[in-house]
Amino acid sequence: MSDTIRLTLKIWRQHDSASPGALREYAVGPLSTEMSFLEMLDVLNEDLALKGDEPVVFDHDCREGICGMCGAVVNGRAHGPQPGTTLCQLHLRHFRDGDTVVIEPFRAGAFPLLRDLAVDRSAFDVVIAAGGYVSVNTGGAPEANTIPVPQAAAEKALDAAECIGCGACVAACPNAAAMLFVGAKVSHLALLPQGAPERDRRALDMVRRMDQLGFGNCSNERECEAACPKGVSIGNIARLNREFLRASLRSEEE
Prior knowledge:
Layout: E1 4-13, E2 22-32, H1 37-50, E3 73-74, E4 77-78, E5 100-104, E6 113-115, E7 118-119, H2 122-131, H3 151-161, H4 168-172, H5 179-190, H6 199-212, H7 223-227, H8 235-253
Parallel strand pairs: 1-5
Antiparallel strand pairs: 1-2, 3-4, 3-5, 6-7
């Protein structure tokens, strides 16, 4: 197998959400197959800058699969063809020499396009602000054994906490639903005793805010679970539904 590769890129270029956009074609290579997808875009942008063209705008930050900043649709799949992989962790060795790669932004009404491949995902921050927190006293860290947590609950909470808020679930869902994201955040805190005081209000407020921001609803397509780079389970959506129903019934009783 050759350690270099040439690709034809078809990249969505759009100045802003109010301007028309289109796919533009670029040839890149030879590139090392050990390069990451974002490094390939860096090389392309350096070439475009040298030619006096506008570089491609795309989201990125840590490039370690942690921050959730990167994200684009590659050949119709959020974050590309490799399961459990963020765009920054996707490497060129997963493509074949001569491939044509189509790169588009995440498309969802709640994620307005900023430019090219970059979208505004601040709607997630608004949902978190609605209830994705716990009210605890500040100060020194409490003794670890002060509040015992069953191992099974702790593991489920940590699994849900792996969500990095990248938005791939929204981009992959035919309804542009944020249920997996909200389900992960609600599950993470509902499973731990520290999240108990705001448990009911959290479920109600986060779901209502999610709806107000224009996200769709879940229809059990499971595309979100397949696209999630951290493998967050769709079971968290079921828990979100239970938490919301429980909170709704309790609010009616009060």
